Amino acid sequence: MAVNLFYFLVFPGLLFSAVVGALLSWFDRKITARVQFRKGPPLLQPFYDFFKLLLVKETILPKQGSPVVFLLAPVFAVFGATTAAVLILLPLLNISSGFRGDLIVIFYLLTIPSFSYVIGSLASGNPLAAVGGSREMKLILSYESTFLLVIAGVIIKASQYFDLNSIITIQHNSRPFIESVSGVILFIVAIFCIQAKLGLVPFDMAEAETEITEGTFIEYSGAPYALIKLTKYIMLFILPAFLTALLLNGFVLKGIGILWAALKILGIVLLLTLIRNTNPRLKIKQAVSFFLVWMNLLAILAIVLAYFGY
Predict the structure, then answer these.
(1) Helices (DSSP H) in 179-255: which residue ranges?
(2) What distance in Å separates the CA atoms of residue 117 and residue 59, rounded to the nearest whole number?
(3) Higher pLDDT residue, 207 or 237?
(4) Average pLDDT, whole number, for the chain?
């Protein structure tokens, strides 16, 4: 029991994932600033932002809606992200445990933060939050089906193994899945799915500051908003880590392998950041069509190629 609590609360769970995610958030903001010819924030700025919200800013509850559900939604988001972090990082870091990283379980856990945002926005009673929640739900229904196809493609390439530990081992014993045509296609599709799951441009229409002024999060402040920030930090780390495990051979934490593991995560976050800074926001109809038509077709093509060994 004590070991499980340590895994969940300290390493590789809440504390570790939050700290690494906050540092990746700084990296994302620093690259964004450089692209825009600005200096960017100091290294500890994400930590300042979190603790200021948690300890200084007042929590204001909306007059309309359900305060209990409104406050519980960020808690569920943190719980889902942290649990997913533990189940992804245990096999990725080669920590022996009873759980070997079932992909279907991880897939469902990774959807909890997005659904929590929708529930919280609808519980706020704000019409702009309802618009954001509606957009988020439509986006979830589009990119999650695509992401599931990516996972299906990886399972086919891994000889029908469903657990993350076996998928990483197979790549260690042969070659990374990305070193194939189907692997490259799955990587491209997965990058756009992660972009949408993180709510980054061009898929940030659920927040859209210039249109619906933060949309799903418009009523959040203080400690509840700090938990949302915390969830975003964790997701910014574990989604690239999950993609690394699925297609990029996982981590080899020995010698130069430690540096190579860090570069994999930084490379994926850099790619996400560059996409975010070089594309305009899409309309919700365009985003849904993008995933349900084009990305699904690419994912199905990758599955067919993977079936034939390409």
Answers:
(1) 181-197, 209-212, 222-247
(2) 17
(3) 237
(4) 92
